[in-house]
User: Which sequence fits this backbone?
């Protein structure tokens, strides 16, 4: 067993996993606000799971309304060592069929309405490396778990993230396809950016629900179609997470675990005390009080 702590951000039904023991709810308030909902903690074997419903239970928050900073930080404060995002996506390629799993390794950010960094308005500057936003070892473990479950899985690819809450226009969909993206969604950014700043390895388990609106012989994406496929995909996601529990990689070996080591360029003696207090949960070793 891995003896790890895994944060999972996804739908509100994910935590209803068969075999999950010692289930407890944690209401967390972070220095960046309140997360989408209480975090459901439970143990599966030697692995502790921390489930956070991204949109709140009952799906109360649109993608652009989510406090991504509070969500990532809440998981870190409860001990998460790495994060898996379980996300519904639209397929941008014929080969990726509704019901398939995609494990993207690259992200394109088309959001414009969301805070995307913890280092804003605090008098502290940090530039983290983000060339590879998805942690390779964590994504590889997800792939192995998917193979064990037997779900049709596509390894690698690019996820383009839009603000929503509307789906794309046909022109936008075709534009993204011209960029050779594989899937489209509304939630993985700024999640991945913030996870890197919090020094948490991050990977995506993307569940294809539709063909967006580009496909000539398929109906354009609708909420009804998405929800219908998502109901079926919840069981798949739970099965993959159960398999992942026993093969989680060591997060200390991930470059993400040292993302802030040389990224903070502000002189320590110039960081205001209030800013240290706000950033301390993000990275205690960097921002804990010097007193």
Assistant:
């Amino acid at each position: 067993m891995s003896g790890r702590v895994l944060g999972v951000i996804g739908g509100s039904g994910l935590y209803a996993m068969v075999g999950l023991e010692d289930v407890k709810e944690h209401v967390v308030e972070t220095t960046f606000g309140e997360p989408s909902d209480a975090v459901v903690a439970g143990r599966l074997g030697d692995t502790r799971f921390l489930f956070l419903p991204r949109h709140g239970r009952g799906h109360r928050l649109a993608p652009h309304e989510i406090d991504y900073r509070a969500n990532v930080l809440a998981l870190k404060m409860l001990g998460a060592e790495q994060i898996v995002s379980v996300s519904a996506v639209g397929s941008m390629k014929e080969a990726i069929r509704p019901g398939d799993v995609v494990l993207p390794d690259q992200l394109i950010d088309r959001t414009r309405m969301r805070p995307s960094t913890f280092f804003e308005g605090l008098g502290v500057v940090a530039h983290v490396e983000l060339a590879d936003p998805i942690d390779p070892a964590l994504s590889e473990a997800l792939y192995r778990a998917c193979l064990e479950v037997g779900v049709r899985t596509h390894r690698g690819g690019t996820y383009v993230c839009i603000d929503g809450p509307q789906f794309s226009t046909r022109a936008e969909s075709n534009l993204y396809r011209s960029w050779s993206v594989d899937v489209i969604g509304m939630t993985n950014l700024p999640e991945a950016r913030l996870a890197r700043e919090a020094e948490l390895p991050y990977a995506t388990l993307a569940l294809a629900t539709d063909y967006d609106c580009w496909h000539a012989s398929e109906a354009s994406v609708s909420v009804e179609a998405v929800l219908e496929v998502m109901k079926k995909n919840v069981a798949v996601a739970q099965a993959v997470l159960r398999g992942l529990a026993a093969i989680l990689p060591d997060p200390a070996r991930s470059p993400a675990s040292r993302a802030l080591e040389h990224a903070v360029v502000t002189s320590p003696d110039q960081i205001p005390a209030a800013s240290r207090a706000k950033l301390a949960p993000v990275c205690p070793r960097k921002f804990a009080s010097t007193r």
Q: What stands out?
A: The domain at 84-287 is CATH 3.40.50.1580 (Rossmann fold). The chain has a mean pLDDT of 94.
